């Protein structure tokens, strides 16, 4: 399809950002609050639906935004300079956030954006080839280096994060959202930005492609695992669709989830745009960076004050996430009636131009 630049802002993308944020909040509350010894299979299975998928959608949307910004700018050099400054802002903000929350994604974001600039001039065919090569590289790395280096799995802490070697290893190889292969999602988002996302046909294709990718990733995993185990019992991780370690089928599942969510949100937004609840969600989606930090510094901080960290059942984590997201959505709506951007978004724009 030819490159297509929507005239107006696609608020369906803000709706997708909102739902991606909700998913990330659920996962992060689960990481910090839940005692893994407490079994609630049904709730845990529901939470597992968002693990790695919500964050993957968030990164894909970031790449989509970067691609759209590049298409709309008359001065690509100016756009690149602003992006570099915003990448530095997110990197520093994320590192500060890491002092509080180990599973921060923002410092990875900053690096994704820096690498993303290298892909803006490539055709979509070359972007998809780049995604394939990045995933091949991720397999090679896991055979060369020790994936468990630095990790304390009993409490999900990373012992040498603040050393040079540990930081680079965590950032590119075995952190929560390592550049290799998580950069695939940003590149996929850049590719999506070239399609006519405001057209129903494209939205339908995104939904269908997303469902096919999700089913294919699961089917291939079930088919490949016995084969890999027959070769060597420890090779079954290569067919994993979980986010740790992030193997190619996980990336495929994440791309499928992102396509499905983005396609659905774009499709349904026009039909429900007039609903008050939709306006709440869209306005909150525009402030997703602020809400992301808020769920750590407000939501999880309150859990710590009440002594609820690492000792709760999954249902409590899910309930706490729902309560925080409800309050955050309402706050964002009230704030958005007065201000165009969320507090952190406004600060980033002021600092970076």
Globally, the shape reads globular
Rg for CA atoms: 20 Å
Strand order of the largest sheet: 1-2
Distance between the termini: 33 Å
Helix content: over 70%
- Average pLDDT confidence is 91
Low-confidence stretches: none
Total DSSP helices: 14
Percent strand: under 5%
Count of all domains: 1
Main pleated sheet: 2 strands, antiparallel
Name the helix and strand elements from N-terminus to C-terminus, one letter apiece.
Answer: HHHHHHEEHHHHHHHH
Give the class from helix and strand content and strand pairing: mainly alpha
| Strands, count | 2
What would your notes on this structure say?
By secondary structure, the chain is mainly alpha-helical. The protein has one domain. Helices cover 71% and strands 1% of the residues. It contains 14 helices and two strands; from the N terminus they run H-H-H-H-H-H-E-E-H-H-H-H-H-H-H-H. It has a two-stranded antiparallel sheet with strand order 1-2. It starts with 10 loop residues before the first helix and ends with a helix.
Write the layout of secondary structure elements.
Blueprint: H1 11-33, H2 41-48, H3 53-72, H4 76-98, H5 106-116, H6 124-144, E1 151-152, E2 157-158, H7 164-174, H8 179-192, H9 200-231, H10 248-272, H11 276-286, H12 288-305, H13 314-338, H14 343-352
Antiparallel strand pairs: 1-2
Helix pairs in contact: 1-3, 1-10, 1-11, 1-12, 1-13, 3-8, 3-10, 4-5, 4-14, 5-8, 6-8, 8-10, 9-10, 11-13, 12-13
Salient structural properties:
two-stranded antiparallel ribbon; mainly alpha; 14 helices; 353 residues; 1% strand
């Amino acid at each position: 399809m030819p490159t297509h630049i929507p005239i107006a802002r696609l608020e369906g993308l803000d709706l997708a950002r909102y739902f991606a944020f909700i998913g990330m909040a659920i996962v992060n509350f689960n990481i910090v609050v839940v005692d893994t010894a407490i079994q609630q299979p049904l709730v845990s299975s529901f939470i597992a639906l968002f693990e790695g998928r919500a964050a993957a959608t968030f990164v894909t949307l970031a790449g989509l935004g970067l691609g759209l910004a590049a298409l709309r700018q008359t001065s690509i050099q100016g756009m690149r300079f602003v992006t570099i400054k915003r990448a530095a802002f997110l990197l520093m903000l994320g590192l500060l956030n890491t002092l509080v929350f180990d599973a921060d994604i923002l410092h990875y974001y900053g690096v994704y954006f820096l690498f993303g600039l290298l892909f803006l001039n490539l055709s979509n065919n070359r972007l998809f080839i780049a995604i394939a090569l990045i995933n091949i590289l991720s397999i090679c790395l896991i055979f060369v280096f020790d994936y468990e280096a630095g990790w304390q799995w009993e409490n999900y802490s990373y012992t040498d994060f603040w050393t040079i070697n540990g930081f680079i290893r965590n950032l590119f190889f075995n952190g929560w959202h390592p550049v290799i292969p998580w950069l695939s999602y940003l590149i996929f988002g850049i590719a999506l930005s070239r399609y006519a996302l405001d057209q129903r046909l494209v939205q339908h294709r995104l939904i269908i492609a997303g469902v096919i990718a999700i089913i294919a990733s699961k089917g291939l995993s079930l088919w490949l695992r016995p084969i890999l185990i027959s070769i060597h019992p420890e090779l079954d991780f290569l067919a994993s669709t979980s986010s740790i370690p992030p193997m190619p089928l996980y990336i495929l599942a994440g791309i499928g989830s992102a396509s499905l969510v983005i396609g659905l949100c774009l499709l349904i937004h026009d039909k429900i745009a007039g609903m008050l609840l939709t306006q709440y969600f869209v306005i909150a989606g525009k402030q997703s960076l602020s809400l992301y930090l808020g769920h750590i510094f407000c939501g999880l901080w309150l859990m710590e004050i009440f002594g609820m960290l690492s000792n709760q059942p999954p249902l409590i984590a899910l309930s706490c996430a729902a309560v925080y997201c409800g309050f955050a959505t309402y706050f964002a709506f009230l704030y958005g009636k007065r201000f165009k951007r969320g507090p952190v978004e406004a600060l980033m724009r002021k600092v970076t131009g």
